[in-house]
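fold-stage: in
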Amino acid sequence: MEFILLVLILAATATTIAAQAKPGCNSTCGELSIPYPFGTTDGCYRDENFLITCSSSTSTNPIANYSTGNIQVLNISLDGEMRFSAWRAKQCYLPSGNRSSGNSVSFGLNQFTISNTKNKFTVIGCDTYAFINDYWGDRFSTGCTATCGNTTDVVNGTCFGIGCCQTSFPTGVRGYNISLNSYSNHTAVWDFNPCSYGFVVEDENAPGYLCKCKYGFTGNAYLSGSNGCQDIDECKTLRPCNGTCLNLFGSYNCSCPLGYKGDGYRNSTGCTLEDQSKRFPYKEVALGAGLGFAGLLVIISWLYLVLQQRKLIKLKERFFRQNGGLILQQQLSRQERTFSQTPKIFTAEELKKATKNYDEDLIIGKGGFGIVYKGFLTDNRVVAIKKSKIGDQSQIEQFINEVVVLSQINHRNVVKLLGCCLETEVPLLVYEFVNNGTLFDYIHSESKASDISWTNRLRIAAETAGALSYLHCAASTPIIHRDVKSANILLDDSYTAKVSDFGASRLVPIDQTELATMVQGTLGYLDPEYMLTSQLNEKSDVYSFGVVLVELLTGRKALSFDKPEEERSLAMYFLSYFKEDRLFEVIESGLVNEGNKETVKEVARLATRCLKLKGEDRPSMKEVGMELEGLRRTEKHPWVNMDLNLEESEYLLPDMSGVYVAGESTSVNTAYDTMKEHVLNDLEKGR
């Protein structure tokens, strides 16, 4: 089966011109035209990234392959596009329940990027979930789910989750890996198609940048010398002048002969005979110019300084509007009566000085939304300064959302926003500085994992739960974090937890229990009910927190593509072991002793309740926080009665006041369409 994959060429021409090879070089391979900078032999291509391998000339129908020799090229256009014949991943189940091989496929390029708008990641199957991730590393990972009860449920021409699903992937991708999975074991004969497919296929137009000859020139912009861009002689081809025409390199000029006036252009005033009595004497003109030259220099210098200053002011004003400053001012002005402290508006000069002109040695984190620098303010405060990546309106709204959300939070376990700067090309956020990295670093680093004992882990979990409970229940307007994960939990020098990164958070009106939104978060932590219905509520944070609890217990990552299929999803792997009463086989080595064994078991039981498929079956974040605080107190003072009810334990929650520092983490934003309710039931049976 052949699928067309569109790849963007990093250099191309702006207009469609006839394919032209380098002089003395082959311009075709079979029916494929090969224009320069591509070529098939030494000296005929720009560099190794533009080498096309053509099969033996004795063949009646030679095949062109790109560089490696095994990726067939279907078309090359100087408009900036190359089409390949790509591969597809396939997985089938036999009536015996055995799975066929070949359930993954890889595709990688050295130079060119795969169009993220002209291609779609497509999955076909009736019990299939598939992932596509970066070929070269861990820069991205996304996927989708396709299910159906039987083939009659599938609607021809649609691809929204019933038998077929599609999703996009980020810009700049040069390769990918595709893997297929299913939820059921299929030990019985199916009454529908037992095969699943995953592939990348061409879809719609994509943006790019192209090579072209400058105005006034024509030819192939990729070739040099007499074979490349050549000057157009407008005087011969256009005859644009009514007077004298002078051809220039890339342009032309018209003038009138002596004794005539006008500009000489045919489509303008042309040339008319000049009145000789009104001609200026050249000597008088030269004398007047000389007398005024000194004063003119002074005026020009003054005007230049004034214009430069006004230009700088206008540039800052443009950046302020471009970065959503007016919207942010409106949002913050509504809060001034309610909150005693509002974020400070820093100047560009203040933050430039604080970061030593954004010295690379002061970078403390990089992620999907920007770069984080360590900064030193003039009042000796150490801060974290996040330089956002703004590319479209949705990201501007996300930046404003983070400022508005954080300005309403005052809690000791939430990182504190100090202010922002909107005068630069990209907006800057200033946070308190948290100096000990992320919880993710400590859990998954062999050298650091031993630094956080079980007592510290239990306290960090309780502090994080308390902060999330505050967001859900005690904030002036309820806040759903929407990206709870260990990488967004910072630790200070005493290992106190600080919840951070509110770029994806949402304010929930008090009269609403859930919101319909585009699914956003990080794979492995995403609430499956939220993924399938797009209905966001506070129980979505509860599920994500449950995954963090399992990370603290097991020391494993939430999603691991390098592990066997049954161990890739930490949540499902943990639940299966807990159900089989094999809990302590997955608990991190050295974490359990006779003094904490029962507490570990209770935390694990709490994690399984947080990971319930249906949100209504999960506890609230407040209940989770109180239970963890109760377990902390019981472990610290064993003589305390373990049967405290929720009301009696409520005072154990941490103080709902305080402050917080920002870090940066990479999130994968994945969008899904809402599916029918029975799909959720199928997922529950699979788990």
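fold-stage: in (second)
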Amino acid sequence: MYDRKRMAEAWRTFVTTGVVDEDVVRPEVARSWRRCRAAGVNPWSSYFPDVDEALLKEKRDKYSHSLAANAPIMRIVMALLECNVSLMDQENFVFEFVSPLSYYPRTFGTYVLEEEVGTGNATVVSYEKKPVRVEGFEQYRAIAQTYSGVSAPFIDADGKYFGALNFNDPFNPLPPYALDMCAMGVDLANTLFLAKRSMNALLSTAEFFAPLVNLMDEPVLLLDMQGHVLLANAAMHPYVMGYERFSYGSQLVSAYLSKKTGADFLMKEAIKDGQPPAVVFKAPRKKEEHTLYLIRRRAIDLGNGLTYMVCVFKESAKVAKAAASRMGKPKVMGRATTRETVNYIGESEAWIKVDKLVRKIAPIKANVLILGETGTGKEVVARAIHAMSGRKGNFIAINCGAIPRDLFAAELFGYERGAFTGASESGAAGKIEAADGGTLFLDEIGEMPLDLQVGLLRVIQDQSVTRLGSTESRKFDVRFLAATNQDVRTLIDTQKFRADLYYRLSMVEIELPPLRRRGDDVRLLADYFNRDLSESLQLPYTPFSEEVMDALKGYTWRGNVRELRNIVERTLIMAGEGAKVTLSDLPAHVANAVSSGAKFMAPAKVMASLAEADAQERADQGTPADSPSDGDAAMRAERDRIIELVERYGGNISQAAKALGISRNTLYKRMGQLHLKVKVTVEVEESEG
């Protein structure tokens, strides 16, 4: 999370000493700062390049179709966020720009290059080739440090960067959801670009913009210029309840407004800084009325003969609470005691972030890519998204790594009679058709054969599927969720995964934290599994002892939640019930985690590598030392490697040290620096008689 004070200090330290405070500065920002310093960028410079009118005209002519595809998205975003929105080509030349400001001279018609203007979202995105956010003092030049910005790249099927969409606010921080909106904007622009002559058909209703509008936390209403309701996001629904039951664009907003403030007031009343007009809405079947404050209103010409009025409101705390009660009590996704109550459990800060994102995106028909280590609960989260989406169809899961390659296409797309040897006489629907009206979950998507990725991409874009052996295309309504424990960027770089499919599937990305970073969630989950498994195993439920819970919490859980569940099940079978489980019932590597005072974390300032420590010890003993490695190993990776090896060798430090290529004493010293201790348990088996 951006901390303005700490970031300002980190920036001052870097521009004066060249040292990056890696506890504060994000890696992509640090990389950019170093490039700026190496290029000789003056952090106090106020230089901006001049507009090149001739080149601007040339670029706009060259990219006319791209302009047409992006312009509606850019105008809607400007109205929603009241920020500058720009479009760059692969050379970072800004050839389109829209702004709520009457005059803004800086970037339009210029190259936005890091070696000239320093760190910013528009410069970092071309290096990172992924959606990025740059805030305040993360900007390298002082003149830009009032800015907040996000960018999302346009990437082709081969992973090549060919431009970016940028949002920038010169005065205020962009909202947390701005980065998701930027990535969504790129996806919608790609959809329009590929539609070509059908572009205007896609833009014929405001529903096309629903994925953008639904990301907004504030109530948003889209009207036509006659005051008909076209689209409302979830936060707005309580105030225009039932509008979707009418035919599109037929219900007037006046039907929901009090006589105190009618449609003319909503659409024409002046909005003054700090004094948003109060718009009064009727309450359904009740006498009381509710006031929303109109903070933004802008008429947007889409360029296809349609003009929308975009209205953004602010709720008072009292109004928001009343609205929430009218919509019904939300399903709680926190602590639970029975498997029927929730799909997942977590109260840690890391998991609360996941839960908030799941709640936000569940009602939106946006494709989601779920990332995380094996066993972190990717399918559980996918099922939760489906359950909260309101979709009436089935949740269909398919493991892309478990299906033989020769059967994959038939399993996914379905087939007709005689499509291949051994095909059923009646043919069969594929998983996509089975998920019609619901959700298709593609687990281990990184294992999907490359040639089938092309077919899947087309299916997702067209929302239609053609069975093997058929020429008939079948329309469907499916939401796609995907998951992987692999680094998709690496797969793209090694040409094992198509970049265009990645961007199609990852409208929203959810990264699940490993269990070792979820704090007391280990206790919650252990207790939940204890209750759940005791019931299924027909055992009495009794809680685990504190000693057992401490051991479970102290262990690093390489297999995450899945491993925890397996160990809880094993101990219940061995002991008979939770209260009877002791450390001796746990695997030795788990029981050892309860070592007195052990902390599986490294002090922030310990940076020496094992090789350097070993070299120092040899020097102290008068033994020739090998040359130290060029770079320090990351502490977390180093710590995890030590834990892994000590566990592998059952606590035998000599064998672990040998595997690391260092002495036993060096390993003990390094473990002390990293606050790692090993507890060894000895079991004595008494002989009979």
